[in-house]
Write a structure and sequence with these properties.
By secondary structure, the protein is of the alpha/beta class. The protein is 49% helix and 21% strand. The strands form two sheets. Strands 6-5-7-8-9 form a five-stranded mixed beta sheet, with helices on one face. The longest helix is centred in the last third of the chain and has 26 residues, at 339-364.
Length: 366
């Protein structure tokens, strides 16, 4: 990477110049000017101007003005020195990177960019596919914008502040993200999807794709942040979107059946079934791929004029052959002055928790 053309007195990576070392030179110059004044009698204004110039000689140009360089983005920040200069420098480094990202956002907002969203939102806004992707996200390393580095720092001891300059080669960052995206896309397109077997086995077979889909979303978001999604190969983009649609279809075809095992469960079953359906779960009365056998206990506690509804559920998820795959245990709690509202809210919270528990257990069973 070519060095940035800025004041030579400023540090390159790994070295910081202290302004205190410059005061000695400034003082010497001031003394020379004063002595010279006795001999030649220059104006006092000229001496003051020369002294001021000497005192500011060590200040990097980027402190006053962000550097300009084609293909690069810069961020500048300062932090007051309260105790340790090292701590102030660290804060300045972090804030300089924040400033750099903010400048990218401003530049992107001013650009016209037509993109094709990688995140497909067909059907339900929240469905089993999306819930499973959330489970996969915990197993995917977070994608961060590559290439940001702090190239210069400066300590202004007179002003008791630390300064930092952050730099990003935007073109290089885009190229690296595009290369990573291509690798993920190749894995998704080369991995064969199941065409036979029961529905549960087909769902299990496509679950390894979810980590790649989640990583792809992160990479796409970074490229979108840089306004670089237009550089994604359009044909490959369409192929990946078609592949995700296939995966979504396989997952959406998985059916569930609720089986109430207690009086409270029988009373709450229609409400929970409605909520799970809203979340994208396919529920059936008979011949489902999975059965959720629920024992639900609903308790009403009144305190200070409020109805507290506590719904506790324990259940087992079994396959079509009756084999237990995993167990779930969830609790929903809500309070309201209206008993019906409290019950409805508790059921909704229960259903949300059950949906996540079902997906989590399903993902772990792959």
């Amino acid at each position: 990477m070519r060095p940035v053309s800025i004041t030579p007195a400023v540090q390159r990576v790994g070295r910081t110049v202290s302004a205190s070392k410059l005061w000695a030179g400034a003082s010497a110059l001031a003394l020379a000017l004063m002595l010279g004044g006795c001999a030649t009698s220059p104006s006092s204004n000229s001496s003051s101007a020369a002294l001021s110039q000497a005192m500011q000689a060590g200040q990097p140009s980027w402190v006053r003005l962000h550097p300009q360089r084609a293909g690069y983005v810069y961020g500048v920040a300062s932090a007051e020195i309260y105790g340790s200069s090292a701590n102030a420098l660290e804060r300045a480094r972090q804030q300089a990177q924040v400033d750099l990202l903010a400048r990218i956002q401003v530049s992107v907002a001013g650009e016209t960019q037509t993109t094709t969203r990688a995140e497909m939102r067909q059907g339900q806004l929240h469905d089993l596919h999306e819930i499973l992707l959330q489970q996969a996200s915990s197993r995917v390393e977070e994608v961060t914008l590559p290439g940001i580095q702090v190239t210069e720092t400066w300590i202004d001891e007179a002003g008791r502040s630390a300064w930092a300059l952050a730099e990003l080669n935007r073109q290089a960052a885009e190229t690296q993200l595009l290369a990573q995206l291509q690798q993920v896309d190749q894995r998704l397109l080369q991995r064969a999807l199941p065409t036979s077997g029961d529905q549960l086995s087909r769902v299990r077979a496509v679950l390894p794709n979810l980590a790649d889909l989640q990583q792809r979303r992160q990479l796409f978001n970074q490229l979108e942040f840089l306004a670089a999604t237009g550089r994604i190969d359009a044909q490959r983009q369409q192929q990946v979107e078609a592949r995700e649609a296939e995966i979504r279809g396989i997952i959406a075809a998985l059916s569930f059946r609720l089986e109430a095992k207690s009086p409270d469960a029988q009373r709450m079953q229609p409400h929970i079934a409605a909520r799970l359906t809203e979340l994208g779960f396919q529920l059936r009365q008979n011949q489902a791929d999975l059965t959720l056998r629920l024992n639900i206990h609903l308790q009403d506690v009144q305190r200070q004029g409020l109805h507290h509804r506590v719904a506790q559920a324990d259940g087992q998820v079994v396959d079509a052959q009756g084999a237990t795959l995993y167990a779930v245990s969830e609790t929903g709690r809500a309070a309201s002055t209206d008993a019906a509202v409290a019950t409805s809210n508790a059921i909704q919270m229960m259903a949300n928790s059950l949906a996540e528990a079902l997906a989590q257990g399903l993902y772990q069973q792959r």
